Amino acid sequence: MKEAFKALADPTRRKILDLLKENDLTAGEIAAEFSISKPSISQHLKILKTAGLIEDEKDGQYIYYHLNTTVFQELISWAMSFTQGGNTDA
């Protein structure tokens, strides 16, 4: 969970996640939404993937990125445990 929070701390990575809420996208499609270099976008994608927030899937010559909703469900469950007075063993 530590990696997920670290990944979420960056506004560029949060914007990438917002883009992926709508559709699966390639790295090129994601990069087109930013005014930073493609290698920088690749680094952000790597951090998000390492944190388990996104996954990739190869389709022919393209790699499509999509959200890993399981990790988001775990984060929400953990956060909700504070409002319910539950155990926070995460």
Q: Layout of SSEs?
A:
Blueprint: H1 2-8, H2 11-22, E1 25-26, H3 27-31, H4 38-50, E2 54-59, E3 62-67, H5 69-83
Antiparallel strand pairs: 1-3, 2-3
Count of the domains: 1
Number of strands: 3
| C-alpha geometry | elongated
Query: What is the third-level CATH name, the topology?
Result: Arc Repressor Mutant, subunit A
Describe, in plain words, how this protein is organized in 3D:
InterPro entries: ArsR-like_HTH, HTH_ArsR_DNA-bd_dom, HTH_MetalResp_TranReg, SdpR-like_repress, WH-like_DNA-bd_sf, WH_DNA-bd_sf. This is Transcriptional regulator. By secondary structure, this protein is of the alpha+beta class. The chain has a single domain, classed as Orthogonal Bundle (Arc Repressor Mutant, subunit A). The chain is built from 5 helices and 3 strands. Strands 1-3-2 form a 3-stranded antiparallel β-sheet. A hairpin with a 2-residue loop joins strand 2 and strand 3. Helix 1 packs antiparallel against helix 4. It is elongated and about 45 Å long. The model has no long low-confidence stretch (mean pLDDT 90).
Keywords, separated by commas or semicolons:
Arc Repressor Mutant, subunit A; 3 strands; alpha+beta; 5 helices; about 15% strand; about 90 residues
